[in-house]
Amino acid sequence: MTGHVDGNVLAGPLSELFRFDVTTASARCVSCGDVATLACAMVYVEPASLIVRCRNCDDVLMVVVQEPDLVCIELRGMAWLQVPR
Amino acid sequence: MTDTDKPSVWKVGVVAETRTETASGRSIVLDVPGWGGNIAGQHADVRLTAPDGYTAVRSYSVASAGSGDRVQLAVDRLPTGEVSPYLVDDLIVGDQLEIRGPLGGWFVWRPEIDGIEQTGPVQLIGGGSGIVPLVAMIRSHAASDSTAPFKLLYSVRTPDDAFFRSELAEPSRGLDVTWAYTRRAPDGWARPAGRLTRADLEARTFPANLSPAVFVCGPTGFVETVANSLVELGHDPARIKTERFGGQ
Amino acid sequence: MGIISRGFSGRSREHNPDLPPGQYLTEDFPVLSAGPTPSIDTADWEFSIRTESGAVHRWDWDQLKSLPIEDVSTDIHCVTRWSKFGTSWRGVSLDTLFADVDTNYEYVMAHSYGGYTTNVPLEDLLDGKAWIAFEFDGEDLDPEHGGPARLLIPHLYFWKSAKWIRGLVMMDDDDPGFWEQNGYHIYGDPWLEQRYS
User: Fold this and answer.
1) Which of residues 57-76 of A touch C (CB under 8 A)?
2) Which CATH architecture has domain B3-103?
3) 3-state secondary structure at position B227
4) C31: nearest CA in chain A?
5) Neighbours of chain C (3+ CB pairs under 8 A)
6) Do A15 and B241 lie within an 8 Å CB cutoff?
7) Could you say which of B54, B55, B95 has the minimum Cβ distance to residue C6?
8) Do C35 and A51 touch (CB under 8 A)?
9) How far, CA to CA in Å, does C132 sit from each of B114, C39, C146?
10) Residues of chain B with CATH 3.40.50.80
11) Pairwise CA distance, residues B144 & B152, whole Å
12) In whole angstroms, what is the distance from residue C123 CA to residue C174 CA?
């Protein structure tokens, strides 16, 4: 796939890991402080990984690497994640 | 809901019906035990598995809405795609495929929330196969006899590239449909073929002062151009929900 | 394993002695990107090598192009399983760029415009194994493929061939770069199928 999509695409892969719908959760970007619903983030999809970037500053919010026997999630680009309930 | 009915669990769908929509796209109806219905605008992940165990997963919007285990997807064939050519050209009635969902609670429209009917205006703007989740919203609107005013602006290359053409040609009550053609318009069409401009959006969509809920879906470049123009026209960015398909 | 999809084979995964394990051959040049494509004017472009002493060796675009330029024909292998045979590049050998660099460190972090990083042992950059490449297939390297210039280390998985290369920083230890911090293999030899650690 060329170019990026948006955070809506995270719903399936992350549903395997979290009990909540990540796409409706909001996060604060460590780099620029922007707060946005994860559905609004920019996502670069590669066959084995998802790179989630801030819609405002393009810095990395989250990286999801999906390997055959494990999933690795890097979250250091987020100051916090707020989940509706 | 049992564990096997959870959206995150892969379920087996059986192809009940396929219909050619355009030269490059078709819709596929699946019976998916355990699906349990979906909100308009949600999507599903589809997983294909080769005999040697190789798998490929892709996300597709769901064109159907409401309760039940019957799901309609619509897929456009990407020339260099790995999954979409299979779904458009090879899949036949009776085939099985794995599906996960319904997924995503953000790019959705509900006829009522907490028992209160949603009556605010809704502007839908679709490009190409980006119509799919918007059609689900239109169907949900019609099925619930919603009084919310709906407008659709649908941009396609030519009249032959429209998904759900006959359905959209006879809009349900409370729905206004505007077509825009980017490469070739029908004979006698007032608007010359060309990409959507800010002027098109200003003339053919709900104005910002009505504070419509706006849903934009299509290729990434289309979505970004439209969303930027809407903000320039005074729409609150928080009222504009987008779903990008990628591509150019 | 899930149910088999009747008639689905995916991309052909053929057996070819020149293909590392698990790879398929492609004729096109897939674009994979972890972020937006940076727009870099060659007038502003600079490449540097920084050592443990704080010494910085710099080249601007004209200086780079005035160095000996080599033609490179090579196979490339992406961790996302595509391989492409006989690609042709032009660029400057890292041997040339390291000729006057004095360092005792054995590892390198490559830094790109746009913030990407990847780690590589110094010995994998020397002895004719790596280049700063600025032409592909007889044309200026396209921005989406890493232009104006990218690192080219064809004997490792292609994520090590950092696009939009900006500089190399010598390291005492083999610290992980962007993908390596996220579970990609620290070295990335395609023949040993070192995809993930």
Assistant:
1) 58-60, 63, 65, 67, 70, 72, 74
2) Beta Barrel (2.40)
3) helix
4) A2
5) A, B
6) no
7) B95
8) yes
9) 60, 18, 11
10) 112-244
11) 18
12) 12
Supply A65's token pair.
């690497």
Q: Is the pLDDT of residue B110 over 50?
A: yes
Q: Is the backbone peptide bond immediately before B79 cis, with ω within 30 degrees of 0?
A: no
Tokens, residue B113: 């929330």
pLDDT band at residue C57 under the 50/70/90 scheme: very high
pLDDT, tens digit (0-9, with 9 covering 90-100), for C87-145: 999 999 999 999 999 999 999 999 999 999 999 999 999 999 999 999 999 999 999 99
The CATH number of B112-244, from 3.30.360.10, 3.40.50.80, 3.40.50.2000, 3.40.50.1100, is 3.40.50.80
pLDDT reading at A68 higher than 90: no
pLDDT band at A43 (very low <50, low <70, confident <90, very high): very high
CATH 1.20.120.450, domain C43-192, yes or no:
no
For chain A positions 4-63, those within 8 Å of chain B (CB to CB) are 4-9, 11-13, 15-16, 21, 23-24, 37, 39-40, 45
Domain ranges for chain A: 5-82
pLDDT band of residue B3 (cuts 50, 70, 90) is: confident
**B102 cis-preceded (ω within 30 degrees of 0):** yes
> Domain segments of chain C: what residues?
43-192
pTM of the model: 0.89
